[in-house]
Q: What sequence folds into this?
């Protein structure tokens, strides 16, 4: 890229976003972080309950420098975020596995991946307009274009859904790319070595048997 | 299945393994839990540091009723597990996303998934034989048959690698399968509805450019 990177383009590293292991794999570039976040839609959300960690998979969406997670108003982390005055301390992690790295030595086996870890406090979204936008973003994050092609949530559904917000402030990406890093003395070993790239994408859509007559597969789904 | 399920076939539910939301999606069957765990190799490991949650992606393997995670002896959770006398409280979560469920209403959009959440204490594995078996299991868990087809870790590599163990005791699976659950009054809406199944597998292996002459792709990789 041209020009000098400005501090505004990166998340300032903190004690907990600088890894003790493989710090060369860590990155704080906002563009990279956004790209990793936008490519996924399932995160693992961690919080503390009764002093012990809890990690649950859930959907998320990014809107600018904010992440949103939604769930039933009855679910424990969402209820806890609503009750916590200063916000619920959470760690939200998104991971893409890109390939398996098979080295000649067991020790140098690895995985190509890109992950983002976000630390911060989650707040209950109470503003109706922000909540509505967050829910649209959650649907569009999974399938771009889908929010406009579905019935929006009604009052009762909105009331049954809690949305929490986590600002992107204390954030790091971590990634491993490339090939095998074997020890020089292992290169002559007769073991196959290389990378198995993960295949990504979708199989053919399975239409609901009760579609209204004449309902065709929309273009934004056919394109996936 | 024939016969009556025995208590030994299930993990006893506890306060934290019974979800407050969609309890009908929770399962405690050992066979099902093992199958979900064995199908994946990347988990999200949660622990508490300075009172705040941390969630990191890492490889894992199952050996019977034990899970193993490995890492550098310098990595924070592994170091913490080694130092914690009563074990480091962790939550280890494995998630497979199987499909996107696109409903006519935004509210009923969902994801087909299978996840396992394990709560417990992680202990540093100090027995050399258990450690060696765990490391073999970690390699074989990613690619079955690979441990025997790579150079085993030497003394120095073993010393640089920490392995922690988490027993399968407080465990639950959670899953959503099937199609769209729209409200009856939405069925006539003109929106396409159905399931987009995720495609899984690998693209063609990319061999390391420096393979020893005559090294062919082994059968266990070609089969993937």
A:
């Amino acid at each position: 890229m041209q020009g000098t990177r400005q501090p505004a383009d990166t998340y300032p590293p903190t004690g907990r976003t600088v890894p003790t292991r493989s710090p060369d794999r860590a990155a704080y570039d906002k563009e990279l972080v956004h790209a990793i976040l936008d490519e996924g839609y399932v995160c693992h959300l961690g919080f503390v309950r009764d002093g012990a960690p809890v990690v649950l998979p859930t959907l998320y969406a990014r809107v600018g420098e904010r992440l949103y997670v939604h769930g039933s108003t009855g679910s424990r982390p969402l209820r806890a975020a609503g009750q916590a005055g200063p916000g619920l301390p959470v760690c939200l992690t998104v991971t893409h596995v890109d390939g398996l790295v098979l080295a000649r030595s067991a020790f140098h086996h690895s995985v190509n991946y890109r992950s983002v870890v976000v630390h911060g406090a989650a707040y209950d979204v109470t503003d109706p307009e922000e909540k509505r936008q967050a829910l649209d973003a959650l649907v569009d994050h999974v399938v771009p274009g889908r929010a406009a092609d579905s019935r929006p949530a009604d009052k009762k559904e909105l009331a049954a859904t809690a949305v929490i917000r986590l600002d992107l402030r204390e954030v790091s990406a971590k990634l491993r790319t490339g090939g095998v890093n074997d020890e020089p003395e292992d290169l002559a070993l007769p073991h196959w070595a290389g990378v198995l790239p993960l295949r990504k994408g979708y199989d053919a859509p399975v239409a609901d048997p009760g579609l209204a007559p004449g309902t065709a597969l929309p273009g934004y789904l056919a394109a996936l």
The mean pLDDT of chain B is 92. The CA atoms of residues 53 and 81 of chain B lie 15 Å apart. The first strand of chain B starts at residue 26 and ends at 27. Chain B touches chain A through 97 residues (CB under 8 Å).
